[in-house]
Known about the structure:
Blueprint: E1 5-13, H1 25-35, E2 40-43, E3 48-51, E4 57-66, E5 73-76, E6 82-85, H2 87-102, H3 110-127, H4 136-150, H5 156-173, H6 212-217
Parallel strand pairs: 1-4
Antiparallel strand pairs: 2-3, 3-4, 4-5, 5-6
Helix pairs in contact: 3-4, 4-5
Amino acid sequence: TNEGQDIDLAFVVKPDKETEFEPLIQRFKKYAEQVYPDTKITVTKSSVKMEFTGTKLTYDIVPMFATDDPEKQLLIRNNGDKIKTSVQKHTAFVRNRTKETNEEDGVVVFNDCTRLFKWWRCHKEQTTNEIITLPSFLVDLLAAKALEKAEINTTYAQTLANWFSYLEHVVRKKETIWFDDYYKTPKSDNSKPWNVLDPVMPDNNVVKSWSGWQVDEL
């Protein structure tokens, strides 16, 4: 079985003349290969993924640049895309929802239910050729929207059933997914088949590269 869990490790560095405007991912890939030569290491568009032998966890190293604002960072992807983000606000986004479910009756906690969601994702990817790859960040946002709209039940099984039923409707209708934690007006791009907006940076549509068939497949 695959636990479906990954751990994001943000590395924030101060830019200098040598590294400014350079995607850091390839540089951090070299660092990882030097320190862990026997570990499976691959790169994604935003991270260096490490899979250690004997563990079902994967570690995603996400290097980014510091900015003049201590709560904002600059992520430069492998393809050169530049995305402003906030590690602190993204952490608070998940932590607040976990705290909310901790304070409610029942056994279901948001971050644990999200881990089950990610296990399901990995299971589907391994057992069928008919599922597109779902980035972990997208799963996080789908789970957060399901929590907001479908809420939680007293068991994980019923909660996931509620979440999947709600999300099936939302994805089929291609409804924009967004959150009002840090902004009050969504900036949907009508030229894209679907919009799932970063809860911190509304200009970042995390599925902007998806085609219509990928949304349909999901």
